[in-house]
Design a protein that fits this description.
This protein has helices at 37-45, 75-90, 149-165, 180-185, 200-203, 205-218, 241-251, 276-282, 295-303, 314-318, 322-328; strands at 8-10, 13-15, 19-21, 51-58, 95-100, 117-118, 128-131, 134-137, 142-143, 170-175, 223-227, 259-263, 287-290, 309-312. The protein is α/β, with parallel strands linked by helices. It has a single domain, classed as Aldolase class I (TIM Barrel, Alpha-Beta Barrel), CATH 3.20.20.70. The strands form 4 sheets. The protein has an 8-stranded parallel barrel with strand order 3-4-5-10-11-12-13-14. The chain is globular.
Length: 356
Amino acid sequence: MQTLFQAVQVGALELPNRIIMAPLTRCRAKDQHIPSDLMAEYYVQRASAGLIITEATMVMEGNSAFWMEPGIYSDAQVAGWQKTTNAVHAAGGKIFIQLWHGGRACHPLLNNGRQPVAPSPIAITGDDVHTPEGKKPYVIPRELRDDELPDIVIGFRKAAENAKQAGFDGVEVHGANGYLLDEFLRDGANKRSGPYGGSVKNRARLMFEVIETVCDIWGSDHVGLRISPLNSFNSMIDSDPIGLSTWLATELNDFALAYFHVMRGDFFQQQSGDILSPIRKHYKGTIIGNMAYTSKEAAEAISEGKLDAVAFGTAFLANPDLPARIKRDAPLNQPDPATFYSPGAKGYTDYSLLNK
């Protein structure tokens, strides 16, 4: 396990260990999507991670997909996040914010009646969304016009500026799990023609424009990208996930990002394949792997050069002191799915710590 506790250079940051906290939506923000004091407590509990990546955070008003998720587009939200970054830094931790647009996963009941937007007018099926009126089916989104896309990029740029003001160490662009940038990227959700549809280069255009503008604010060595080429969550699919992964790995070298964060599998096991091998072969920078890694498998993957670090999700959710538990080979708390998105401290900040 010592491999997991070796320092690693991630862009401009030297991390003390390779145990990363994956972004985890927890729905504990206050009204107006303002980060709460409880959120600050939650994140500082987990400051022993090599790097914390926050939950998906709204870059623009009117694009809520989870009801009580945080934003980073208002002054009040910036002030709320400063409490978290100050606490994490005081505890010796490092923290990136994940910048996110919900796309077609948003719902009118969460956004004052506003219809969600997407690359193509195709609704998410097979699941419902939590709203103030209970669980509701997803609606058919409105197809974005090409001339509207610069405003999306501007929204990410402003969010990146706000994230710097809020005291974060960097930002992660959310290009995964069936939200807007991923919807443009994968051909199962993007059926448009023109400069943002068709070829993989065109489908990736919006994501790359966002990365470019965020790097302009932060410098590329403070910016990461997360993708999930195999994950079918939110009705997503791509006709060639391995080809897509290989192409992205090659093209992303031009940005010299802090890291490339890759979800290796599919929540629902509808798609399978090895995307990490071609990414490792073609990508020259730091790779963070994610999705159902045990600490043993993570250590082996890093030792064998397949990855540079591993992001843990539910293990960190239920074990605030996960690095200490891994180091001592201590038992892990089991997460309680019933409290993943519920309000309050239960199942959020009340998981037990190891005895000193």
